[in-house]
Amino acid sequence: MKKIKLDISGMHCSSCAMNIDFDLEDLEGVKTSKTSYAKQVTEVEFDEAIIDEVKISEQVKKTGYSSKLASN
């Protein structure tokens, strides 16, 4: 399992954060997604043998938000 943090832009409320988590956790290979509206960050734990950062970022975009790998 691998963990990454994504900086998210475009969230307007805590429901936006929940939408991101629901959509990411529906992806095969994603174990958990925890999004903080206050911090504008998503932490994702996933099986890198099944899915990668690019596909996760693409799903965030499909949900209606922008993302990039967090610097820390």
UniProtKB/TrEMBL annotation:
It holds the Pfam family HMA. The lineage of its organism: Bacteria, Candidatus Dojkabacteria. Residues 2-68 form the HMA domain. PROSITE patterns: HMA_2. Gene3D superfamilies: 3.30.70.100. Keywords: Metal-binding. InterPro entries: HMA_dom, HMA_dom_sf. The keyword Manganese does not apply. It comes from Candidatus Dojkabacteria bacterium. One of its GO terms (molecular function) is metal ion binding. It comes from the Bacteria. This is Copper chaperone.
